[in-house]
Amino acid sequence: MSATPHAIGALPAGSGALALDTYELTKRFGSFTAMDHVTMRVEPGTVHALLGENGAGKSTLVKCVAGFQRAEEGSILIDGREQDIANPIVARALGIGMVYQHFTLAPGMTVAENLLLAGGKTPALIDWKTKRAELKDFLATTPFSLDLDVRPSELAAGEKQKLELLKQLYLKPRLLILDEPTSVLTPQEADEVLGHVREFARSGMCTVLIITHKFREVMAYADSVTVLRRGKAVHHCRVADTSPAQLAQAMMGEEGSASATPASSPAARKPLTDGAPIALKVEGLKAQGDRGTLALHDLSLSVRAGEILGVAGVSGNGQRELVEALVGQRPRLAGSVTVMGQPYNARRAENRSLKVRSLPEEPLRNACVGDLSVAENMALRDFDRPPLSRGGVLSFPFWRSRAREWIAEYGVKTQGEGAPIRSLSGGNVQRAVLARELAGDINVLIAANPVFGLDFAAVAEIHERIVQVREKGGAVLLISEDLDELLELADRIVVMSEGQIVFETSAAGAERHVIGAHMGGGHHESLKAAA
Prior knowledge:
The chain is about 35% helix and about 25% strand. The chain is an alpha/beta fold. It has three domains: about 5-95 and about 175-260, P-loop containing nucleotide triphosphate hydrolases (Rossmann fold); about 265-355 and about 440-530, Rossmann fold (3-Layer(aba) Sandwich), CATH 3.40.50.300; about 370-440, no CATH class. The strands form five sheets. A six-stranded mixed β-sheet has the order 6-7-8-3-9-10, with helices on both faces. The protein has a six-stranded mixed β-sheet with strand order 16-19-20-13-21-22, with helices on both faces. A hairpin with a 2-residue loop joins strand 17 (about 390) and strand 18. Helix 4 runs parallel beside helix 6 and helix 14 (about 395-410) packs across helix 15. About 45% of the residues are buried.
């Protein structure tokens, strides 16, 4: 299984890129086989994509390569030599770096401190003048600009993802593993990140192994792809020799290939009713950001009953603050919000009477209590109402029986309704929250990046359920940093930049480059003239 002379000889002299082979790699957790005799070849200086549904074994495979888990059987070869990667320190010494789907930043430290901390060899006394100059020079070689003095707690999800990538690039890895690196980035940001990573690989400095669920990213940026299904490697090919349909079939097996197509295209949906009432109206909304400056500047928008309004924007332009101000997690400094013509201040009683629901970003943090069971989390909205409570006495058997029904209906994979919700995978947490939030009649649904980090089968299912809210006459405010998602689902799209709505278009007449230009900010008047 040694590296071929041709593959290495094709790279520039002094190349840092390494060749990775896994041979019959097997990992078990008790009686469950997470990875079943996986053999894979990653050529040096290439971008190799790893595709598969949640639970297919992708994360287990890369964690074994990165030293976070140890396989019971099989071998890992670096440049043709077998290596015992017992822990992440050994992996780092071999030049292996990994960017995780979940953030691993020190929230109380600045961007500069997080970058230095990544090296693991921080001196007792730091010459900050010299180090800051070094870090500025390093940032100049990347497509990202982050303020070195900002703390991660003040960054939006997309900016945190960039910092995670910068941490690894700063260490000059020979193999860079990326776990869902673009799940919180706009298409422009994703193209920027992946284009940079691809150039990094093609220069011969690094080999890249990327876990993704987005076929567009595989087709545009990867050289080769391996598909995992139920712990087995079922398909290997060069990207030039395959298609999204073939990859979907390999991922899902014969039974799932049909679900590769979007659940509902805008053309197939019934048109918006003329004169449909305005279900959600936001006027002159102002709210502060975490740093004490204004994050929302007189923001106004409206969504009609039976309409999906998509909110596009580069991460960090006030979307998070807008959602938090609407759902009651952030104080409003000025402005008004009405639902069905009634004042709405996001109180629990108003949520019930006006039928307002929400699917927040990072649901485990924003919509759940991690240590409570699945059944208890599913009851958070109506635990004190009949039939879940009678005469002030909580009816736990009913909580559990309803939870079992929802678990079956929404396909929530869990050990049972009594399992703590933090024990579920991201997709299954989101399904559990969906079950709770979509029960009953809905006037307004506020959804923020609702398919963050989920596999494509879960994405299709959640999109279908969001469209069903629209079809039943509900108004949906869909905030997403994935422009493809908005173009597929929304009836109308507005663009947020610097805390304001700067552009509006119907989804049917939307032009990607015009939306992208407004998302990028700049002189809004000249952009409007250009459009």
